Amino acid sequence: MDSHSNRLFSEGRMVVAYFLPDFLTAKEIARFSATCRFARKAIKDYESVWRGRLVSLATKYRMKIERDQHEDSKSDLDKFYVIDKTHADAVRNRRMYRVKGTKNVFRMICSDGVVTCAELRGGWAWTNNTTYYSSVTREDTLFTNPIPMLKTVCWYDPRLSMKYVEPGNYKALIRHDLKEHHTMQNKLTLRMSLIVREYETHNQIKKTEVFFTGSFPSKQICEQVSSQPGFVNTHIADINTDNHHKLEDSEYFELYVEWNQNDDWWKGGYTIDGAILVPVDIKNFCTDQIPEQQPETETKHVDESSLIAKMFKKTMNILLGKKK
Fold this sequence. Notes:
Blueprint: H1 3-19, H2 26-35, H3 37-45, H4 47-60, E1 96-98, E2 105-110, E3 113-119, E4 133-136, E5 147-150, E6 159-165, E7 169-178, E8 188-198, E9 204-216, H5 219-226, E10 232-240, E11 251-261, E12 270-279, H6 304-319
Antiparallel strand pairs: 1-2, 2-3, 3-12, 4-5, 5-12, 6-11, 7-10, 7-12, 8-9, 8-11
């Protein structure tokens, strides 16, 4: 081909890469993105239309998609899916990505969706005092070690902030553990609030209480947690953000969780790993759903020109109303 023909062919492939996904099945999109450099470029340039869809599909089929680092912005998908390489070794699950602008909030890519979670590692009264808390290392944590484990106190006031929650319908879970001879039953209050903040200043615009109980953990929760080894995910509340506020472009949601003592009796034997928001369309959520990181393997070579030609033919047949 001459230079003009080469240019037209390259431009034609980019056009196909941009618009083809609207006519493909999920498996075809995932394969297309994993084998064609034009598709990967289209992902980066045209992310607002179908990049998010492609990321989840590629994850489902365990295919690698290249992602560039971008500046923070409301419309930038990488604000919500960015690998913090300095933290990667500390995060045991390689499918967890820290959310930009936070130290404790992560997106967890599961087999059938994306879960938001936040760790709780300190910042409340006397967590560094070994009289009241032990610093423990846990193999079953979703997050980082060490973790503060409550030994014995007569007060209790942890706080957890989960910023940049995307609008949606969620099941709110607390991930925690109780020692065999704990003294926690009905000794706490638990409050969850949905806060609306302004992006630029982070000023609070609105705060709505979405859950409160004056007796936590209940006898039923204590039995549930004590009957299972390791950290347990306890369903606390259902939260549909649309029932509380419709976000403007300049706003974001924060889930704020507060534990407090409800009496002056001594409490002990309690460890909190964090909080988790699971979209309601993810059924039977458990941490075992998270795909293991696969070793790098050689990808079978696929002739891009041949693949593009087949995809282009299929697209044209659909546009012209022809049957397969």
